[in-house]
Amino acid sequence: MIQLQQTSPLTTEYLESLGFVWHTDSDATPYVSDQLVILSKAEAEAYYKAGNELYDMFVAAAQYVIDNNLFHEIGIPFNLVELIKESWETDIHWHLYGRFDLAGGVDGSPIKLLEFNADTPTALFETAIVQWALLKQNGMEETAQFNGVYEAILDNFKRLVTLEENVATFEACYEGWKFLFTSVRGNSEEENTVRLLQHIATEAGYITEFAYMDEVEFDENEGIFYNQEQYELWFKLIPWEDIALEEPDLAMILTNIIKNQKAIIFNPPYTLLFQSKGLLKILWDLYPNHPLLLETSFEPLQNTKQVQKPVFGREGESVRILDENITLIEGTEGDYDNHKMVYQTYVELPSDSKKSSYQAGLFFAYESCGVGFRKGGKILNNTSKFVGHLLLDS
């Protein structure tokens, strides 16, 4: 059973002073729990090693998809295939950060991969800043947490220039390329997450600017512009599959911008391979019975309790838990029913004394760098709460 540490909650005024304005859910309850999951250092180390091993496996699986032309099989839109290949082939398209969603690892149960949010992962602000602030405001030891997310992303920004583990040469190598950060207008969570990333990039040493998506101009021959200024680096918190399906003309322009070497885009297009839950099936084919994986198939599994989920989906929408006879036990409505589905062996999430389920979100930026938790029902969705953690020796 999950062990929890009670704390005094952060006030809404304090959270807003940090820039964290999505502190209250639509039912007027706090989004951030005032309890902390207690982790041992050994459990944190196990998460760290799991993320590093999984990332190497994802790289191998993505290469397998490219080598064997399996883009359609894992649901990749056809108009992004060329862009994905182009970004995969050169080191300058550096993966900035992602988040593994994991079951287990807390109460003696084994760590199991649920999926990899590699393109536009959320919960960055909560994991990097809010759970640290919860320790600080409660007078706890601020280092008693597996949380180096901010520092890891800062170093990874520098690696966009140094292209190696050592970032000490960033200042000498940086030639003044400008970095534009973009979100859609009217979504405070996305905007403030993007502005946090802009803040980190600025601290790393970049010249940065923020613009809403409708203010950015794209030219396939000249590059990316805002206020008539050209930007060589562009971060967007907009899923690649949405660009492919809803903005096909933009997908074509971005393909040519990258081919013409007029800009580098983050996260890179190839992260859509990692993001596709179809890659979970490829992983199982390449690493059958690996202890970090759950069996996953494009067809319903026989005589197995399982989870049906779309290859591309967000916030737990269009997810269904099926019993051994492929009969629905529990499910969610959503906008992703038209996507291809995968079927993954069901695994029970760790729970607390009130039967709430906990799912770990492990951030990866060059290496595993921090963990936070979501708390909710059997299927976690946009009503689930964020729960920080506390490291104890035992």
From TrEMBL:
Keyword ATP-binding: yes
One function term, GO molecular function aspect: metal ion binding
Any matching Pfam family: GSP_synth
Superkingdom of the organism of origin: Bacteria
Keywords, comma-separated and alphabetical: ATP-binding, Ligase, Magnesium, Metal-binding, Nucleotide-binding
Domain Glutathionylspermidine synthase pre-ATP-grasp-like: start-end pairs: 13-390
Protein name per Swiss-Prot or TrEMBL: Glutathionylspermidine synthase family protein
Species this protein is from: Sulfurovum indicum
Lineage: Bacteria, Pseudomonadati, Campylobacterota, Epsilonproteobacteria, Campylobacterales
